């Protein structure tokens, strides 16, 4: 799709889902894009894209307007759970079987509490306190991992909601005008008469480059005002 494009060359695309409208249109589609600096470049594509064209079935030559919402989300990295001693309370007690029957006569059972989250794990399967502790820490890491992943999934869902917005055309970030061969990015008031090249990907980097420059200038301005 983007073969030969300086910025996008070498990216790999993997379709995740594709749903058509049943009327020769696309209702929803998603893809996984792998490559160097993918998100840093494509994050600017999030928003409402407006298309102005004359359909082949339009006999009077009227321009029809449609819109598509795009969300670009980074793939979350695996969560590396680090347990610090100061965040843990470890209690030992005597293991017990059904009905309170003592399993052994030593305090080998372990209860580990993660103080920042309140998550508690108890382990008494092993006769060794050391082994029970090791098992308990492993289970605690898994539970913390699951909690962190759930948190990131919620943040990701909220980010997608913010990016897509209501889907109203007034929120458009870019317009593709086919009769004029024009592409206009409304965020930076940039207009290029390279519609085909941009849609094919060969000149999309030109739009992205202007957006990156504007974004960097905005960040510098924010840093200057905060200093």
Q: Please, could you describe this protein's structure?
A:
- The chain is α+β, with helices and mostly antiparallel strands and 227 residues long.
- Helix content is 31%, strand content 27%.
- It has four helices and ten strands; from the N terminus they run ββαβββββαβββαα.
- It has helices spanning 38-42, 129-164, 195-200, 204-226; strands at 12-20, 26-34, 47-53, 64-70, 88-93, 109-114, 119-123, 172-177, 182-185, 190-192.
- The strands form three sheets. It has a five-stranded mixed sheet, with no helix packed on it.
Beta percentage is 25-35%
Give me the secondary-structure category: alpha+beta
- Number of helices, where a helix is a run of at least 4 consecutive DSSP H or I residues: 4
Largest sheet: 5 strands, mixed
Radius of gyration: 27 Å
Helix content: 25-40%
Descriptive keywords:
227 residues, alpha+beta, 5-stranded mixed β-sheet, 10 strands
What would you say about this model in short?
The chain is of the alpha+beta class. It has helices at residues 38-42, 129-164, 195-200, 204-226, and strands at 12-20, 26-34, 47-53, 64-70, 88-93, 109-114, 119-123, 172-177, 182-185, 190-192.
Secondary structure: elements and pairs:
Elements: E1 12-20, E2 26-34, H1 38-42, E3 47-53, E4 64-70, E5 88-93, E6 109-114, E7 119-123, H2 129-164, E8 172-177, E9 182-185, E10 190-192, H3 195-200, H4 204-226
Parallel strand pairs: 3-8
Antiparallel strand pairs: 1-2, 3-4, 5-6, 6-7, 8-9, 9-10
């Amino acid at each position: 799709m983007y073969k030969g494009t300086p910025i996008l060359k070498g990216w790999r695309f993997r379709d995740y889902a594709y749903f058509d409208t049943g009327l020769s249109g696309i209702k929803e589609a998603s893809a996984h894009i792998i490559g160097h600096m993918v998100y840093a470049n494509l994050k600017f594509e999030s928003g409402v894209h407006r298309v102005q064209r004359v359909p082949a079935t339009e006999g009077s030559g009227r321009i029809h307007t449609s819109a598509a919402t795009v969300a670009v989300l980074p793939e979350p990295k695996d969560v590396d759970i680090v347990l610090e001693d100061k965040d843990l309370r470890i209690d030992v007690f005597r293991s017990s079987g059904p009905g309170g029957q003592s399993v052994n006569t030593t305090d080998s059972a372990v209860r580990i509490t993660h103080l920042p989250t309140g998550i508690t794990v108890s382990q008494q399967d092993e006769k060794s306190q050391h082994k029970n502790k090791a098992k308990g820490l492993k289970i605690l890491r898994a539970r913390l991992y699951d909690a962190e992943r759930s948190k990131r999934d919620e943040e990701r869902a909220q980010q997608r909601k913010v990016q897509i917005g209501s889907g109203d055309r007034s929120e458009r970030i870019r317009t593709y005008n086919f009769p004029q061969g024009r592409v206009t990015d409304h965020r930076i008031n940039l207009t290029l008469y390279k519609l085909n090249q941009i849609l094919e990907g060969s000149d999309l980097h030109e739009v992205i480059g202007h957006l990156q420059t504007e974004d960097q200038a905005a960040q510098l301005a924010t840093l200057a005002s905060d200093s």
